Amino acid sequence: MRWAGGNHFRAIGIPEPSGEAKDEQRVLRASARSYENLELQMTEEETSPSKASTGVTGLDDVLLGGLARGHVYLLEGTPGAGKTTIALQFLLEGAGRGESGIYITLSETRGELIAGAASHGWVVGDRFKVFELAPPESLLDEDQQQSLLYSSDMELGETIKLIFEAVEREKPDRIVLDSLSEIRLLAQSSLRYRRQILALKHFFAKNTATVLMLDDLTSEALDKTVHSVVHGVLRLEQLAPNYGAERRRLRVIKYRGQAFRGGYHDFNIETGGVQVFPRLIAAEHRTAFVRTPLPSQLPELDALLGGGIEKGSSALLLGPAGSGKSLFTLHFAAAAVARGEKVALFIFDEELGLLFERVRDMGIDLEALRASGSLFIEQVDAAELSPGEFAHRVRGRIDREQVQTVVIDSLNGYQAAMPEEQSLLLHMHELLQYLNRQGVTTFLTVAQHGLVGDMKAPVDITYLADTVILLRYFEAHGLVRRAISVIKKRAGRHEDTIREYRIASRGIRIGQPLSDFQGVLRGVPSYVGDAAPLIDDRE
C-alpha cells in the first residue's frame, strides 16, 4: 500500500474574506487605555518583521504582537474547537501582507476545506496554495490491498517526502500542516513520531517559514511529544454547559522566549472567523480624572448618600425582588444623561419592551434617550454569553462610545451566564477595577432571596462595591412598605438613617428618616414615637 505521488496533489487558493484584511494590532502596555474594542492599534513592536500576525481578532493581543517568525507552533484542540478556522485566518493574513502560504492537508478533503472557507464568506481564489495529500484510488480496491504486511514505514517516509517536496517547490513564508494525527498513526511509536517531528522542525527552520501544526488530540493517551519540540503551544477547548450554547476558550501553554497573556481567554467562532476576547487585566488600564459627587435628581436620595455617587466608583443596590433596584439605577442613568454623559445599560433579567413601558409612565423615556444617542441599552442573553465576551462588550462601549456610566442589571443574570465558573468574584473584581480606573461610574443590582427577615444574596460582592445601598420591605399600619439605607460608602460621609420610599406613578418618593421605628431592616418594626414619619398614602 502506497500513498499518492506528486500527481495526487491538488492545488486551490483561498481568498481573503469580504472587506479589507484587518491590519490593526497592539502590544500590551500597562499605561495604555483599552484596545478600542479589540480593533487593535499597531505599534512599532507589532509591525516588526520579527512577529507574524495571526489575523485573528484579539489573538495577537494575547500573544503580544503575534508569532515570532521562522518557528514551528502547535495548535491543538478537539475536533470542532476552531483549529482549521484559525489556520485559514493565519494564511489569509499573510496573503494580505504579501506573504506566500501553503495549507498541507492530510485529513480534510479539498471539498471540505472549500466548504469550510465558504461558510465564512471566503470564496475560492489564489490567495495561497492548498495541497491535499490523498491516497490513490487504488487503495479502495480490495484486490490491491496487502493482507499480510502493513507498510507503515513506506507510507510515513513517502508522506514526509511529499511534504518536503511541496515546501521546497513553493518556498512559502507561512505553512499550515493539518494534521499531526495522521503522522502519529503512521509512526506507530512515540520514538519514531518524535523523530519525524524533529525532522519536520529542522526542515522548516532551514526554509525560515512560520509554521502552524494542527493536532486534533484524538490519540488515546495525551501525547506531549510535540510540546517539547515546538516553539509555542496554543490549546483550544470547547466546553458544553448543562444548558445554553457551547463555550470556547484558549490558552497559551508555551511560548519560548516570549511574553504572553497567561490564563484562559474566551473566544467565539462566527461568520467571518474566530474572535478572541483577551482576559481583562485591570492593572493595564488607568486614566486620570477628578472624583466628584454625581447627584441622582432625587434630593432625599442625594442627602442619604452625602451628595451623590462619586465619579469613578461602583454602587451596589441590594434588595428583594420588586423593591425597585432597577428603577433607582435608571434614575441615576437619567441624571447622567441630563449632565451630558453617555450611559450604557446591560439588562440581563427584564424584557426591554416591558421595561420601556414600565418606566415611561414614571417620567423616564428610555426609548427617547436611546434615540438621542446618549443611552446604549443591550438585552443580554445569559445562556449565550461567556464572561469574556461580556467584558469585551462593556469595554467596547467605554472605548468606542466614551460611556461614563454603566448599569449592570443584575448580577443574578451575570452569574447565570457562568453557572459552572468558579471565578465569578475574580471576573467582577477585574471588571469593576477597570471601570473605576477609567473614571466610569458603575451601578449593579443583586436580587436577594426572601422578602422580609433574614435575606441572602446568591453572590456576595459587597466588599467589592464602593457604595452599598440596601432596600427592604417592612410592614406598618397594615401595609407593605419599603425602606432604603446606605450601609457603606468609601468615598465620603453618608447618612446612617433609614428612610421610607414609595414607587408611585410619578416615580420614586423618599420620605424623612424613620427615627420613631426600630427593627425596620428585620422587616417587622416596632413604633416607639408619637410622630407620623411615614409617607402619607393620600399624597
Provide keyphrases for this structure.
single chain, alpha/beta, Rossmann fold, nine-stranded mixed β-sheet, 26% helix, ten-stranded mixed β-sheet, 13 helices, disordered N terminus
What CATH architecture label of the largest domain applies?
3-Layer(aba) Sandwich
The largest pleated sheet is described as:
10 strands, mixed
* Extended strand count: 25
Q: What is the general shape?
A: elongated
Distance between the termini: 94 Å
Estimate the helix proportion, in percent.
Answer: 25-40%
Q: Mean of residue pLDDT?
A: 82
Number of spatially distinct domains: 2
CATH superfamily of the largest domain: P-loop containing nucleotide triphosphate hydrolases
CATH class descriptor of the largest domain: Alpha Beta
Major sheet: order of its strands? 1-6-5-7-8-4-9-10-11-12
- Which percent band covers the strand fraction? 25-35%
At the third CATH level, what is the topology name of the largest domain?
Rossmann fold
Radius of gyration: 30 Å
